[in-house]
Amino acid sequence: MPLYLHTILSFLSCFGFGILFNVEKRTLFLAAVNGSIGWTILMAFDNTHISYIFANLLSALVVGILAEIFAIVKKTPATGFIVIGVIPLVPGFRVYRSMLFFVRGDLDQGLTEGVKACFMAIAIAVGIILATSITRMIRQHISLKH
């Protein structure tokens, strides 16, 4: 599937999840854009055969930084932007496949998929933490100058 279709479909998906999670109407569009950008980055790196851990880390970092920027622009907490932005990155399919392998008795493959899902989840968490920390450090530095 072409990358632009991934971008469009991930936007629609994030928009739908934003409605489902009652994200404020004034922030819903930017939250969906954030998720779409994160997914597009992840897919772009996936096509270049870069490590899936690095791809998830970078995608989550971008989602986190954009969430902080959007939160400043809209004068609202970044949480709504982060939650919707991270939804496409969550390794739900890998967890499903891991459980499927376990149920079928293929323990080695199940463990492999489960470990990959854990690494992806950790990379997402670290990316969001880094983005929040970087943004706070920059904001503190700016406020100290004034």
Describe the structure.
The structure is a single chain. This protein has six helices and no strands. The protein is globular, with a radius of gyration of 17 Å. The relative contact order is 0.14. It has helices spanning 3-20, 25-47, 52-74, 79-86, 92-103, 107-145. It has one domain. The protein has 146 residues and is an all-alpha fold.
Give a topology summary:
Elements (H helix, E strand, L loop, with lengths): L2 H18 L4 H23 L4 H23 L4 H8 L5 H12 L3 H39 L1
Helix pairs in contact: 1-2, 2-3, 2-4, 3-4, 3-6, 5-6
List keywords for this structure.
single chain; 146 residues; mainly alpha; 6 helices; globular
In a few lines, what is going on in this structure?
By secondary structure, the protein is mainly alpha-helical. The chain is built from six helices and no strands.
Beta content comes to under 5%
Q: Roughly how many Å apart are the termini?
A: 49 Å
Overall number of domains: 1
Global outline: globular
Element string (H = helix, E = strand) = HHHHHH
Using only C-alpha atoms, the radius of gyration works out to 17 Å
Largest sheet: none
Counting DSSP H or I runs of 4 or more residues, the number of helices is 6
On the 0-100 scale, what is the average pLDDT? 93
Helix content: over 70%
Structural class call reads mainly alpha
